[in-house]
Amino acid sequence: MPQSSRYSDERVEKLLAELVNVLEENQTPTDLSLMVLGNMVTNLINTSVAPAQRRVLARSFADALQSSVRED
């Protein structure tokens, strides 16, 4: 999702590495990893975003995800 961010690349990469590490340590298969990450996104949207903005944010997130998936 190449966009400018208020967070440093280092901070993003550190969190990503930690999340990947947890999934790898638990030998989590891809489908379960996607389920867990999807549930985490849903929970964050439902608990941290105003109800009127949830669908807009979810659509924006889905669009950004779709555009970042490679076709190779």
From TrEMBL:
<dbReference type="InterPro" id="IPR023202">
    <property type="entry name" value="YejL_sf"/>
</dbReference>
<dbReference type="InterPro" id="IPR009857">
    <property type="entry name" value="UPF0352"/>
</dbReference>
<comment type="similarity">
    <text>Belongs to the UPF0352 family.</text>
</comment>
<protein>
    <recommendedName>
        <fullName>UPF0352 protein NG42_19365</fullName>
    </recommendedName>
</protein>
<dbReference type="Pfam" id="PF07208">
    <property type="entry name" value="DUF1414"/>
</dbReference>
